[in-house]
Amino acid sequence: MNREMLSDAVGGIADRHIEAGYKARTKRRSVIWRSVAAALALALLAGGAWLLLTPKGAAVYAYAAGTDTELTEAGQSFTTGTISDDGELTGHPLMFYLTGENIEKVRFSVKNQLINFVDLTEQRDEFGFAQNFTVPYGERESEYSFLVIDWNPANIISALRSGQYNAVREIPAEERSDIIVMEITMAGGAKAVKAVTVELRDDGSFFAVFDDYRIGEKDGFVNNPDAEPRPREDIYSIGDIDIQVLDRDGNEMAADAGWYDAGSIGSIRVSWSGREPESVQMFATPTGTEMSEYTQLLATKEVTTAENAVVFGREYVEGLDLHHVEFVVNFDSTHRLTSETLNIGDLSE
């Protein structure tokens, strides 16, 4: 998730939340971030309600989009993001931030899936999608609500899209669940460990519990090294696009005199560098026409996981006679990348 996607998903805020927002050092930054604060907070209110952590130890709270009820130790269902049986993710299953008094730093570790840290104040390092990282918080408590964690069930989605499982209900229980452990250090040295456990239900919705946590021998993932910070220009810039045409065995194909045989293609993999796009589209134009009025949109794939690629199966090229095929990677309404043209057709005769 990038800044554009985050702010596009939200809008507006109650006055009491604006007053608690980040105050930039200059008038220009103040105006910019007040707008971002407004957008983020209503996402958490309009998309759902505040989910309150009531820890027994340090006074740390978490707020997430999802429901209008308090999330307690008993847990709560929420549908801010759901997964279909074919692996399509809608929304964000769990997007939250922590608040409290004098948080010095928080180390986040996720067991099975991926998490993304976004600092809307642009003062801290970011890591892209990762499993372990440490975030410095500091004395400015008004900034805490701008330090957002976005949990992404990338492995579950991949298992469904690849056909490993044909439905959510077929996924074993241990593969449906995940845990985010938060090792919290307060100013002065006090420490606390909190965790959010997440479970995917048969209907594609999620169930989550926030509580204190004790790290044990089964939690080896907590000992994994932290991800290295990534330059923001790498995370949020628009990079390059790459196309791989694969045969039915998954091997990369070479064009024959500039043409790919549609009958031999198993899939086409479209990958990119830089920030995550919103969607990837596949277009085909019959040879000899070379005019946009004859161009057909064959498919649009939404990009909703932490993967840097989407795959178009052979069903999208079956029936193509002699066509020029292009892929468009859409980052937003004004930024997109267009691939090189592939010549694809039925070469069996």
Description of the structure:
- The strands form five sheets. A six-stranded antiparallel beta sheet has the order 2-13-12-11-6-9. Strands 15, 17, 18, 20, 21 and 22 form a six-stranded mixed beta sheet that branches.
- Helix content is 14%, strand content 38%.
- It folds into two domains: 231 residues, no CATH class; 109 residues, Sandwich (Immunoglobulin-like), CATH 2.60.40.
- It is mostly beta strands and 349 residues long.
Write down the Rg. 23 Å
- Return residue spans where pLDDT drops below 50 for at least 5 consecutive residues: 7-36, 41-57
Class from helix and strand fractions: mainly beta
User: Helix fraction?
Assistant: 10-25%
- What is the makeup of the main sheet? 6 strands, antiparallel
Into how many domains do the coordinates divide? 2
Strands of the largest sheet, in order across it? 2-13-12-11-6-9
Q: Tell how many strands the DSSP assignment holds.
A: 22
- Please give the alpha-carbon distance between the first and last residues: 46 Å
- Our estimate of the beta-strand percent is 35-45%
Average the pLDDT over all residues and give the rounded result: 80
Oligomeric category: single chain
Total number of helices: 6
Taken in chain order, the helices and strands follow as: HHHEEEEEEEEEEHHEEEHEEEEEEEEE
Give the overall shape: elongated
SSE blueprint:
Layout: H1 3-8, H2 15-19, H3 27-46, E1 60-64, E2 76-78, E3 81-83, E4 89-91, E5 94-100, E6 103-110, E7 114-119, E8 129-130, E9 132-136, E10 147-152, H4 154-161, H5 173-176, E11 177-186, E12 191-200, E13 206-212, H6 232-236, E14 238-247, E15 260-261, E16 265-274, E17 279-286, E18 296-302, E19 309-313, E20 322-330, E21 336-338, E22 342-345
Parallel strand pairs: 15-22
Antiparallel strand pairs: 1-5, 2-13, 3-4, 5-10, 6-9, 6-11, 7-8, 7-10, 11-12, 12-13, 14-16, 16-19, 17-18, 17-20, 20-21, 20-22
